[in-house]
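Reopening this one. Same input as before:
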Amino acid sequence: VELFAVGARVLRVVVRADGEGVSMRATDGAGRPVLALGPLVSRAVAEDQLSSAGTGEDALFAVEWRALPPAAPAGPGDFSTLVAGDGPVERVVGEVLRGVQEWLETEGSSAARLAVVTRGAMPTRPGDVVDAVSSAVWGLVRSVQSEHPDRIVLVDADPATAGDEVDLGLLASVDEPQIAIRGEQVLVPRLARTASAAQAAPLDRDGTVLITGGTGTLGGLLARHLAAEHGIRHLLLLSRQGPDAPGAADLAAELAELGATDVRIVACDAADRDALAAVLADIPDHAPLTGVVHAAGVLDDGVFTALTEERLGTVLRAKARAAAHLDELTRDADLGMFVLYSSASATFGTPGQANYAAANAFLDGLAARRRAEGLPG
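Same output, byte for byte:
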């Protein structure tokens, strides 16, 4: 890496093939060199290399909310406000999508700021009951913040207070992209190391574990793990193609070799509530449902300004809508686990994946809500 200059406000970046890798060169707006990098080469990593690296005692992180010191009152600043509404996740997040897109298109001043306001979207304390739909709004907007830095602020209002009014003077005195207001405090998210669970909860080997996306890569890996490491004998694998999915027959045979005596692969879209309810009703009494893993999902990546409500809905349906149905329809089951496969995109706001970040943030919010209600999640 060679750094030639600092302070450039505009970069033009050229990436080109360089032998087995790629090289990158960046210049400022006048064509003066700023940075050169390369060649950068990607190499395959063997499984034993990963195993020897170990997981480490301090490899796990969580988001902690920390209070900022009180600040002097300030004026409201140049802020517009967009308040997220109530309703189904597709409608609420779709409204925010349209509102932010319209603001980006019409607000030409780079100094202008938009505050997107939710209420109870973030679990700032253990046991907080959150609104998973509002959590999805945070995932969406976090990606917008990555694509349009320093223009949009996320504000989570205190769910204990009524009304949509937010003191924008708080924003003028706080240089943070994401804040939560709880009482008189302004909280900000920080990554912090956290300890993993001391001991995993035992799983009932005689119960049925349902896995959505069960014939996909993640679902297949987990099914093998449950059979080989936890002795799970009854596996119900759901996917849109069911037994016609590529590799489904081989997966079933491999699971049988690992000790799973009852492997059912069923064609079912978990976002279809009636279809999912029918599958759940068909689980036999001698092997009741004891575990749920939601590993289904789809991608439809693209920059935020090109995202449509249809593309948003496609991704939300597979992850968020299906998760909501699983939560609703299994509440009376004696579950030992309810696992939702989320993504770091929900926390970090991956550029080009606003719809995917929104869907995964919904899963994070749903898991937090279930834990607050004393349910596995």
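So the earlier flakiness isn't reproducible anymore. For the record, The chain has a mean pLDDT of 92.
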